[in-house]
Amino acid sequence: MEKFEGQIPDNREELTTLPGMGRKTANVVLTNGFNIPAFAVDTHIKRVTRKLHFVPQDASVEKVEQMMSDKLPEDMWYPAHHSILLFGRYQCIARKHDHSECIERIKENMPENEIAASALEKMITEIEG
Fold it and tell me: Catalytic annotation on 107?
């Protein structure tokens, strides 16, 4: 209350000084509370982006955030975060499962264009390779 005069800070640096406020939560607050583009990384995002080879297998949470933010335009950060999170929570779960079903779900929902086809082919090659 005293530090920020009862106002919620609108930047990551100040938000993360609050007790219990880490980088992921700060990014969620920025996006949802202030409409400031940010790419929050939770356990699902980290696991799925590694599994689908969007980032290196040893990428830290910070590296995942940086790489995904670099790869996507700012206006896609929020929807991409939610899409990957929900995909990891309900489809590509952490427990052992048939990963080919995940790939099929991706195929079903990708746009039909050359860029998407090329990206899917690369992803499948890296996963199977």
Answer: no
* Other beta carbons less than 10 A from residue 88's beta carbon: 22
DSSP state of 2: T
Prediction pTM value: 0.84
Provide φ and ψ at 26, rounded to 5°.
Answer: -60, -40
- List per-block mean pLDDT (blocks of 10 residues) for the chain, which spans 129 residues: 88 95 96 96 96 93 96 94 95 91 88 82 79
Q: Which of 3, 24, 75, 107 is catalytic?
A: 24
Cα(88)–Cα(78) distance, integer angstroms: 15
% helix / strand / coil in the chain, to the nearest 5? 60, 0, 40
Which of 3, 42, 75, 107 is flagged as catalytic? 42
Q: Is 10 in the active site?
A: no
User: What's the token pair of residue 69?
Assistant: 């933010």
Residue 28: name the closest of 67, 87, 75, 77 by CA.
Answer: 77
